[in-house]
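P1 family peptidase
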Amino acid sequence: MSETRPRARDLGIPLDGTPGPHNALTDVPGVEIGYTTLIDGEPGAERVARTGVTAILPRGRAGAGIPCAAGTSSFNGNGEMTGRAWIDEAGSFSTPIAITNSHAVGAVHRGVDQWMDRHHPEISAQWMLPVVAETWDGYLNQINGDHVTSGHAIAALDAARSGPVAEGNVGGGTGMNCYSFKGGSGTSSRVVPYGDSSYVVGAFVQANFGSREELSVAGRRLGPDSAAPAPIEDIAWFLRDGERARSVPGAGSVIVVIGTDAPLLPGQCAALARRVPLGLARTGTTGSHFSGDIFLAFSTANTGALVSRMDEARELDSLSFVPWGRIDPFYTATVQAVEEAVLNALVAAEDMAGREDHVSYALPHDEVRAAFRTAVPAGAAALADSAA
């Protein structure tokens, strides 16, 4: 899935923290990511698909069915992530994660079930609660066209690999918009030194949120001054009471998955998930009422723990975990990785035309480069004032 599209750092955006080797969620050992991307039909045609499926396997295909400690958080609940009730109850999940469009959750859920039955029949013979999340791509995609099938979910799972991860107009993010630019899939990671070794915190986002006026990049408000058109905000295309009207700026959603190999309790995973909005806020969003912003964090440590089955030979379970007093660097890594993952999604995305000739324009790279070529180095303004 290697991709030659530029990323945020390639445009000179100054970002905090030390990324892993691929600057991706796949830097967490064992994590694999795969896509099915569906681009079909010319703009304005009767049948237009601009959508897809993203698959995330926390322990790779061989480790599906082995629980991970996990926790969730909802910043704004105008969205869906299946399996959350069980994660909140048991503090773990054991299936792959899939992300798609809002009206394809059922098909993708069935596809995950089928894939598990094909590859792990001993697990599927019991019970499964797949994690499937969504954001709405109905501006570019004919969302009621039944484009996504269970087979597309299976294909995304089969395509999952470690290593570099493609971003932008791919997988579940294919038809998404972010800050009224073209949005989509993005990822990033941070290395967290710990004692004599280190751990990785990775983030994956399906970015489909924010208004043009909100976008901020590394502290510089690039959205309001961008020359790129924002037709998703400016034209009357959204059906309301049978009439065409303008959509609400900032409407959409964002799904974020955080993964780490650090040993964490379920409650600590939930604490990481609760920090996701801080990373999103660095990019400018204030969290629209019309946006579904739901987050999942998991830990791949403590393999073999948190298994839910009757086992009379196993009277007690045990978990190792980072002491609460030493968890702050993992919060920092989460916030930094989420911020960069959103920016990577924006930078990697390309212009896209979709249903009814709707167009979404990518964040102009030249505007970003220009903004940071002329950026005043930190502290320089204060020194100049003091010298004056």
